[in-house]
Amino acid sequence: AERLRAEWTSPVYAFYHPEPEIEYVKGRRSHVFRCLAKGCKHRCRRFLDKGDASSTSNLRRHVRKCWGAESLKEADKAADVDEVREKIVGGLLRDGRITMSFKRKGGAVTYSHRNHTKAETRTEIVKWVCESMRPFSIVRDRGFQCLMKTGRPGYWIPSPSTIGRDVKVIFSKTRDRIARLLQEYEGDLSFATDAWTSPNH
Question: Which end of the chain is more exposed for a tag (fewer CB within 10 A), N or C?
Fold first, then answer.
């Protein structure tokens, strides 16, 4: 194991527990690498009897999904594994920068371990205020500010006017896209009105 660890110079190893588990599957020896991310239970298995026993493609694939492509990109620039473990992985774990960026996979919600970029923050807030019918001014709400900035006071939040402009831009692009889809549709289209009266209106 010590000999193999000396060969593990790729920065991607810094995102995993330094002591891999040794497991046998049907008589085949394998190393199992455990992700260091908080709450992540992913285990990456690598069989030692294969020609690509030193391949890091599976390790990198998980890091890209779990920690974020930007974290992996920065790790690749580091001098060695120790620098990545101290400055990138250690920093992420210490600061607890688990953001709201998420994607659904198999019905479960998985969260990224890096902060949103400004563009991502604007996109996520536009989706949130539109889907949940929130006012643009909610970003100035004291409780919202507290939730977003506690532990990371420098986290950037767009202004209500910025959100308003973004919503208009997205609406315009969505309208144009729907119009194009309707124009290119070769079948028949049916339209109906939802009209009704009420003494209250």
Answer: C
Question: Is the overall model pTM greater than 0.70, yes or no?
Answer: no
Q: What are phi and psi of 2, to 5 degrees?
A: -60, -40
SS3 assignment, position 101: coil
Which of 8-22, 109-123, 132-146 bottoms out in mean pLDDT, i.e. has the lowest? 109-123
Greater model confidence, 66 or 103:
66
Look up residue 35 and give its amino acid.
Answer: C
Joined together, the tokens standing for residue 23 give 């497991």
Residue-wise DSSP of 146-173: HHHHTT-TT-----HHHHHHHHHHHHHH
Residue 82 carries which side chain, given as an amino acid letter?
D
Q: Which residue has the tokens 């294969």?
A: 50
The Cα 144–Cα 141 span in angstroms is 5
Instruction: Write the single-letter amino acid at 134.
Output: R
